[in-house]
## 1
Amino acid sequence: MPEDLYPFKLISMIRKPGPSDISLDDRFEIGGKALGLLNAREMLHDIDPDEIPGIDLDIPDMVVIGTSVFDAFIERNPLAEIAFSIVKDNRIAHAFQQATIPFEVLGDLRNLLEKWNMPLAIRSSGLLEDSMQHPFAGVYLTKMIPNNAVSLEARFQKLVEAIKFVWASTYFRVAKDYCQATNLDIHTEKMAVIIQKMVGKRHQNRYYPELSGVARSYNFYPVKPARPEDGVVSLALGLGKTVVDGGKTWTYSPKYPTIPPPFKTIQDTLHETQNEFWLVNMSEDYEYDPIKETEHMLQENIRTAEKDQVLEHLVSTYDLEMDRSSMGLGGRGPRVLTFAPLLHLKTIPFNNLVNQILQTFEARLSYPVEIEFAMTFNPHHFSLLQVRPMKIPKDNLVMTEEELTGADTLIASKHVLGNGILEGIQDIVYVKPDCFDLKLTKQITLELENHNKRLLEKNRPYVLIVFGRLGTLDPWLGIPITWGQICGARVIVEATQENVKVELSQGSHYFHNIINLDVKYFSMPYSQPYRIQWDWLASQPVEHEGMSTRHVKLDQSLTVKVDGKKGWGIIYRNELKTPA
Amino acid sequence: MSVIQDVIANLVEKEIGQPEFIQAAIEVLHSLEPMVPKHPDFIKAKIYDRIVIPDRVIMFRVPWVDDNGEVQINRGFRVQFNNAIGPYKGGLRFHPSVNLGIIKFLGFEQIFKNSLTTLPMGGAKGGSDFDPKGKSDNEVMHFCQAFMRELFRHIGADTDVPAGDIGVGAREIGFLYGYYLKIVNANTSVLTGKGLEYGGSLIRPEATGYGSVYFAQEMLATRGIDIQGKVTAVSGSGNVAQYTIEKLIQLGAKAITISDSNGTIVDEAGIDQEKLQFILELKNYRRGRMSEYAQRYNVPYYKNKGVWDVLREQNIKVEVAFPSAHENEIDQNNAQALVNNGCYCVSEGANMPSNLDAVNVFLNHNVLFGPGKAANAGGVAVSGLEMAQNSIRMTWSREEVDQKLQVIMKNIHSNALEASETYGRKGNYVIGANIAGFLKVAKGMQAYGIV
């Protein structure tokens, strides 16, 4: 097969042997992710190259193993019984490894590897995946393989193992739980697999892209002055695993690329920015484990990337003596992944490109979109890895003014971060309004930490209601608590009252955590008319009482509803009769 | 009712809506009770009544334009509290929480912190409710310039010398100073915390850590003990902890612990220069975890535990403790365990790392206890040294600044010790530091007559 026969090919049981070009006719067996990329390939034509001088834009070459192959694999081996059982993931994974891939496609796979001897990403592309209603982001697994062994047979073996691993992940616990939670029938899922050339460069035994990221055209956790529709971008050095796993990334609004994340101090910036990155281990020295996602992956410190000379467009340098950071690599000092050369100095029209892609795709799809990408520099190459429509608020999230003050409304606000409906919470920890005094905030920190510890041990998520700026450095403004001391809270409410009329943090002290954990964050400034039903709270069964705080356990679950589009939210005292 | 109670009652009545300031004033005034009977002249001159009222409060609007072309307005403050012993000196805080009560509270405390250093620095504080968090560099610069457009007329090398505080770091000081130069056209020491290239001082990052060791050295000397060869525990792994260990190594002491938010290592062989270099690379450049130290040097690592918990649980003996991590890290149990395991000196590198119960344990067991306001005054001291260098148009070498820092810490110690002795609490540096700081200012005020 000549190289130019790729980039988009399908290996299928249905068509005649040999890969064929993918078209929309194949949509029934290429899965959501591949379909998204197929559409994206068309949409990329709308990007004006003159607007992004110096950057090559593409979608990496890929071959899709259709769901017909997956069907044959499951039927012939047979694997259905163990797949749908409740055994542990590793048993399912082992069973899949021991099974045999349909012989009809083996020749195609071998042929592929004769041409492709670069690192490969083996990705899932389920039929249910990446649809707008059910974004399976992070549910199925991806495997990276170095694909650099001398012998074709050894490379073939690793490719086959990786394909079986991705197939097996269709039935892992997290996928089953996700299907159950979203009322999907896992029996209807079929898994195509994307074999994609990996974006990156080799540095000795390390292979990785200089930059990876996720961009969304809609943001449910906007930081002022950005609005939800201004979108959000998260950037990381190395493989995108850092972003997908919720690691330390640089998050900004593409409309305001020079506004940094809300770090309190420069020391905060040092602590909260990425200092380790993921790469593909190209060495033969690895621990054999075909059912481990990171079998061929390693984490390295940013110092290694500095030695690899890949930080030119990505870092600022912190001057220890001056306690100040400056953009770029000038001077000695720790390198800080602020992406300032790209975003401030515009060494490359990167943000312009991201904006263009988001706007173009959103216009074409008529929905907000999420993209995943990776980049290498010198020459500058931007590769689109995934495109999916974003789940946006549905009609049942819309709430009226009347509901905000309704009888069943425990808490309401028009300053809420997050989106969606949360049910099943029966625990509330709150600071008692009658004895709250800003003098006591340090003592309250200890009480809240104890509540958190106890509830975490029992695996009970809770609603936390506090006064003032949560997480402030200044105990006179609110409770100076760290995230680790309240990490079990799924909903946080910052309230005010007559003796606490301070400006609220609106989640900015923990923005990274609340975004990754999808915490609903209610701010209740004194100027807005909505108040908490303290009397109702006081009448609930007390589970634990502190000097200034109280933990109540309700007889029935609360319902938390947040309309991320408007930033409105309600905590109902009970379960809604018409759940989402 | 005592005179102190009268002053407090008056404050509560008059300073409505300033709970932080009232609280701070009450704490300071109460700590002065032991000295009141010995100074009837202070009562006569109404020093206690006068010292709680600032010399001057300056409030101003700070209009500026954000990146979107929108006009933004913030409130600016400078509270010049007391200049009895030197030009007003105190930080600027940019934080949404800033209001008059908070600035007064901070300015009031600053009088005594500065006085304690024995350097000629009065007390002041300033700032704005501007929040630099989430602002672009350009917006921060525009704000700083707008702030200085008013502040410049109230400050000066011999009048008032602001410094940084929360939200005002090297970047903001640079913008503020640059604009001052532009409009006043006078390169004078009008701000401290400046960059090294334009008037800053060496030894600033090291000052707090070095200073807490010097303070411990002085406390030990009162009992004829040399710090050389002593087994010490240091908590934290930031600037203060790193330079505490560096100075301990220089003085021949043995630091056996260091910690970060993930855990604690105990290296009973002692952290030597080579290991310290590894720590500096690990924490400052790699920003890695202390567990890597444990792996490299094959020493125990206690995950998710602080230094003082580990010392208590493992019954590890140390002679001198340097809590240098964060507030309230030593509680009563840990303090008791330290005492039981032979610790006889504690020098606080962090701000209030020992809670009140822990402090009482130390004082009740005759432990040499250097409270943060005295033991970690090295940072403020170097601000004073920056002013001094600017005034004489000289830049001192590292060695010179370090030497002067040592002298200052010695003076702080001797003043606090002397005050504790004079007022019947010999060796109680908590009371000694409070009284010594106050006394110098009060005597200055008294000398000036009723002004």
Note: The first helix of chain B runs from residue 3 to 14.
## 2
Amino acid sequence: MVSNSGTDSYASDVAAANGADVYIVRTGSANLASVAAAIDRIGARPIITADPADVLIADRLILPGVGSFGGAMAELTQRGLVSALRERLSIGRSTLGICLGLQLLARGSEESPGVRGLAMIDAVVRRLPTEPGLRVPQMGWNLTEPRHTCRTLAGGFAYFANSYALREIPKGWRGSTFAHGELNPVAAIEQGDGDRLVVAAQFHPELSGSWGLDLIRRWVIGRPSIEADGAEPTAQLASRPAPRAQAVPYDRIGEEPCSRLA
Amino acid sequence: MLTTRVIPCLDVRDGRVVKGIRFQALRDAGDPAARAAMYEANGADEIVMLDVSATTEGRSAAARTVRAIRRVLSIPLTVGGGVGSIEDAARLLDAGADKVSVNSAAVRDPSLLTRLAGRFGRQCTVLAIDAARASGTYRVLTRSGTTAEPLDAIAWAAEGESRGAGEILLTSFDRDGTGEGYDLELLGAICGGASIPVIASGGGRTAEHLASAVRAGADAVLAASIFHDGVTTPDAIKHELSLLGVRVRPSRCEPVNCVGGVS
């Protein structure tokens, strides 16, 4: 049933994700527990952080996000994370943006006019139109269809909860789309490969069942391109200082008082 | 195109799943996390957990139950029951809920919806409405159906949406647990006025009931007894729904799932 890489490598994919550290940015109101639980379930180790140094140098970073575009940018700015995120993304360090975490990559959003995003993508996020039979927020499972040959993005049903979306796959990115009436907005985009794999999903892979967990696993293990095989090893990565945050065992996430999460 | 969600509902009291008829005569229906995992494996699109605990100890157990469910669940989890403040909601979200539903407290203070939407987003804010027929209209009930409010359900749904609700969980008190089918008149009236998604609840037993709710405008159909009692599974009823022309998420890897360009 696995469509990505042939069934023989599936077991090794599962093994490869085992024990990997995955940093999750604490972005105020984002629902961290579901993201952390998904990372835990694929055998990797979720670590929640709001430290700009971690955000810059972690091998794998998830930028989750629920709430409003303007509110999330204000939160990132207040925590001093904007430049760390921009720098990390500009060198393509492995990052997974979820929902608002995709939208924040854009220049701006109709949701919060005048607020500048991380501006890694030269596009503006637009509101999904409401028509008879088309409710907004879009809340539920929609079919995603890849428009390119992707490393992580497979076709299949994904869980969405959004009122806004990018209308077109940006230049230089691979991607998938979903149907909303006559429109085909962006479901997810990706760029790079191996340990330089940036993926951003409008849907919630952490809530998209085993299909979503498979996507997260493909991102965690990275999938070096054929061209990259035998190319220079990433020596500079090995010499990086270790990220600073302490691992929080999944069982303890959520036991923290909410004031500290806020 | 979005598919219709089939949502098993776990009414949880003091850490156990219970189910009654018209909110009374509760009987035990198992462990919440085990149930949730089983329903996900059997094709559920989302899980709703409503804490119907009568005691304070039961209430504080709710976050533990949410945490236990989250550990095994990879689909969305909506949690409600006794949520009266931003802090209550934050506690449940931190424990692993993806959406929080409010009922009585929103009736007492509708600004709660606005504050929840402002803090956590509209997509996280579910307004649960329990409605009962009363001489040609629908009245809102609160406190687990024990208190009739001087509030028209259709007007309240519209106000809830304008206050910040991102979804409405609409339960017909008259049909709850009866298996007589959803109250389609109520559903049609609420869906006709809403631009946010509406979940139909109360009375669904057969695929025909569920399909009728979708035709009346529901975006999602919730049921409890039929799943708890083993009458059917989410997979089985979704298959029947697809034969009735309702678009659902195929629960197994069907060809459509396997098309696509991952190299």
Note: Chain B touches chain A through 53 residues (CB under 8 Å).
